[in-house]
């Protein structure tokens, strides 16, 4: 394995494992199931543009600091390229390249017509005040503008670990300051607040997508029979690692659908209760006490990783990469792993889990909800109109007419509630959720079919790569360079 980087500013060592190598190992495994030429596969695999830069900032205390930053555009087979910007002290070039590659494959799997990209700013965002963060974000954006690494048709950043709506707001505002007359400038960044031309449902989109992924997986009776579980999400015992935007929302949606959240893991430790934990209550408890530990009667684990090894049906790692490795894979009890985070399972650990009959629902599919709804936001920004605005009233009026006609023909009067239910036109959120659900359901069965159609394809991850490679290869071949 390749060594990467050395250490962070505060002396913490970077990972010594190359994440990009891991992604490429998965790619190579899948490429064996295709018939494309070596050079075409290499073309798909390599990062196309890697921009590494450094800029100085003045801290609130007057000290000057230099900040390392990256933007990697992994694939230009479609434009724009798309992916979040990670704010983390641990971020390094190898990681950004790996995450950009995953974005390429992710977009292809869920049929989002973008290339993949990722950005990174090497700071611990919790150690900077708001004004400093604004300064860093605006400077980062202007560096991207200088090199033509951002734009509605070029490369469109979004939130990732350590960034959110606030940062996206600063980014788009900076972009607009440089391109004042561009009517499409809002489409240069996604994950913006609703008031800044964002879209309903973007914030919880990744978590909601993870829920749809888990639900699709457990809804296939044939697959559940093999792992001795009853089909359906209801009653499934679930452990979630990470109470951030992805983990918290995934847990909430699963709980709403009747799943039982038996365990939650965070930096400070893990909690477990076989009778179930109320996710919202744990969230409030953490807000009040600063920790998930000591929640009601739940069992405490001060070593967070122990939480992953407790008894459950589904494990959702939704924190960072490299959480399930050979060091703990043998102790994992879950029969299904749904990867909310990017790269949480190492290739060796996955092999071991699959060998034991587990189902691993891979990151590049399971966490694609965020970029899917980003795509909807981009479409909304380019069309300059909110989803549903043009036809909601019209649809409601047509439904009213239809309901009245039905009443006349049948001689029965609908109740007020029945009529309301029948005539209601869709809101933007309802359209977003329906588009996301359709995307996640369709993609799951596309991947599963690839796996079922070739017995040598052992995992859903390999199947996902095979599907993605085929789609990307087709678009390269359409350029007429490859036969
Ligand atoms: N950072 C998210 C991801 O890894 C979202 C990317 C986007 O919306 O462009 O999928």
Structural features, described:
By secondary structure, this protein is an alpha/beta fold. The chain folds into three domains: about 1-45 and about 460-483, no CATH class; about 50-195, 3-Layer(aba) Sandwich (Rossmann fold); about 205-370, 3-Layer(aba) Sandwich (Rossmann fold). The protein is built from 16 helices and twelve strands. The chain has helices at about 20-30, 40-45, 95-110, 130-145, 165-180, 205-220, 220-225, 245-255, 280-290, 345-355, 365, 370-385, 390-410, 415-425, 430-455, 460-475; strands spanning about 50-60, 65-75, 80-85, 115-120, 155-160, 235-240, 260-265, 270, 300, 315, 335-340, 360. It has a seven-stranded mixed sheet, with helices on both faces. It has a five-stranded mixed sheet with strand order 1-2-4-3-5. α6 (about 205-220) crosses α12, α6 (about 205-220) crosses α15 (about 430-455) and α15 packs across α16. The radius of gyration is 23 Å and the shape is globular. The two termini are about 35 Å apart. Mean pLDDT is about 95; it is low at about 1-15. Glutamic acid (GLU) binds near residues 82, 367 and 371.
Secondary-structure map with pairings?
Layout: H1 19-31, H2 38-45, E1 49-58, E2 64-73, E3 81-87, H3 93-109, E4 115-121, H4 130-146, E5 155-159, H5 165-178, H6 205-218, H7 221-226, E6 237-241, H8 245-256, E7 260-266, E8 269-272, H9 279-289, E9 299-301, E10 314-317, E11 336-338, H10 347-355, E12 359-361, H11 363-366, H12 369-383, H13 392-410, H14 416-423, H15 428-453, H16 460-477
Parallel strand pairs: 3-4, 3-5, 6-7, 6-10, 10-11, 11-12
Antiparallel strand pairs: 1-2, 2-4, 7-8, 8-9
The structure holds glutamic acid.
Glutamic acid is lined by residues 82-84, 158, 160, 190-191, 342, 367, 370-371, 374.
């Amino acid at each position: 394995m390749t060594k990467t980087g050395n250490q962070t500013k505060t002396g913490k060592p970077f990972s010594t494992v190359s994440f990009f190598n891991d992604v490429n190992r998965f790619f190579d495994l899948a490429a064996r199931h295709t018939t494309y030429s070596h050079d075409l596969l290499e073309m798909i695999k390599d990062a196309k543009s890697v921009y590494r830069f450094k800029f100085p900032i003045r801290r609130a205390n007057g000290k000057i600091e230099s900040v390392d930053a990256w933007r990697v555009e992994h694939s230009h087979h479609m434009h724009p390229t798309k992916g979040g910007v990670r704010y983390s002290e641990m971020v390094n070039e190898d990681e950004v390249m790996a995450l950009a590659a995953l974005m390429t494959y992710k977009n292809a799997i869920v049929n989002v017509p973008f290339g993949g990209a990722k950005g990174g700013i090497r700071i611990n965002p919790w150690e900077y005040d708001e004004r400093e963060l604004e300064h860093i974000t605006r400077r980062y954006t202007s560096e991207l503008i200088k090199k033509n690494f951002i734009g509605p048709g070029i490369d469109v950043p979004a939130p990732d670990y350590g960034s959110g709506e606030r940062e996206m707001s600063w980014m788009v505002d900076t972009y607009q300051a440089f391109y004042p007359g561009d009517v499409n400038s809002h489409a240069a960044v996604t994950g913006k607040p609703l008031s800044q031309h964002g879209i309903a449902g973007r914030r919880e989109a990744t978590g909601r997508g993870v829920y749809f992924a888990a639900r699709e997986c457990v809804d296939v009776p044939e697959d559940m029979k093999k792992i001795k579980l009853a089909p359906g999400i209801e009653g499934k015992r679930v452990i979630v690692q990470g109470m951030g935007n992805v983990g918290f929302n995934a847990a909430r949606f699963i709980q709403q659908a009747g799943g039982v959240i038996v365990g939650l893991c965070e930096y400070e430790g893990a909690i477990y209760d076989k009778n179930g934990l109320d996710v919202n209550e744990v969230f409030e408890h953490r807000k009040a006490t600063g920790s998930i530990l000591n929640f009601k009667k739940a069992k405490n684990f001060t070593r967070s990783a122990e939480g992953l090894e407790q008894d459950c049906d589904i494990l959702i790692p939704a924190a960072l990469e490299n959480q399930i490795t050979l060091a703990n894979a043998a102790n994992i009890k879950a029969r299904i792993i749904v990867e909310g985070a990017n790269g949480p399972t190492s290739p060796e650990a996955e092999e071991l889990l699959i060998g034991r009959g587990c189902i691993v629902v891979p990151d590049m599919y399971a966490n694609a909800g965020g970029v899917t709804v980003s795509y909807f936001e981009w479409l909304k920004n380019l069309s300059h109109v909110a989803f549903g605005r043009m036809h909601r009233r019209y649809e409601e009026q047509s439904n009213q007419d239809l309901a009245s006609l039905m009443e006349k023909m049948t001689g029965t009067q609908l109740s007020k509630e029945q009529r309301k239910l029948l005539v209601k036109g869709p809101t933007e959120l309802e359209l977003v959720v329906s588009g996301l659900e359709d995307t996640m359901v369709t993609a799951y069965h596309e991947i599963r079919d690839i796996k079922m159609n070739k017995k040598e394809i052992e995992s859903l991850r390999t199947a996902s790569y095979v599907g993605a490679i085929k789609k990307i290869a087709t678009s390269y071949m359409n350029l007429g360079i490859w036969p």
